[in-house]
Specification:
The chain has about 130 residues and is an alpha/beta fold. The protein contains five helices and seven strands. Helix 2 packs parallel to helix 5 (about 120-129).
């Protein structure tokens, strides 16, 4: 199984950078994962709710440890999110285009996490399912 199949076969997901603004990429990724029937949690430190789903400030606040984490944040934020993911025990991380952080990727790989940071987009893959 390749990195993307491993990411998409998880039981639970979180979206760092999920947004309540419908034109934002973080909103679209969160909605696409939900629409595909996946258990998905929004991560956003300044939003309380997204489409009726409670938003959580950080991974440690989630009711479960997500197996897969999609990151849609600026690179300087991505690094902090990855540190939280490593500490929490997340198994898969997919940095969406523009969120990539080389140091974060390296730290995640060293922690044994499946990392996707090649510029591919989860929305494209979900559309094919």
């Amino acid at each position: 199984m390749n990195e993307i199949q491993t990411f998409l076969s998880a039981k639970s997901y979180a979206v760092a950078g999920a947004s309540a603004r419908t034109h934002k990429y973080g909103y679209k990724v969160f909605q696409a994962l939900l629409a595909s029937g996946r258990e998905t949690y929004p991560l956003n430190p300044v939003t309380e709710e997204i489409e009726g789903h409670k938003a959580f400030p950080k991974i440690a606040d989630l009711p479960v440890v997500p197996e897969s984490l999609s990151i849609i944040t600026p690179p300087q934020v991505t690094r902090k999110v990855i540190a939280e993911a490593i500490e929490a025990g997340v198994k898969n991380i997919w940095m969406q285009p523009g969120a990539e952080d080389e140091q974060g990727s390296q730290a995640a790989r060293e922690a044994g996490i499946n990392v996707i940071d090649d510029g591919s987009c989860v929305l494209v893959l979900l559309a094919r399912e």
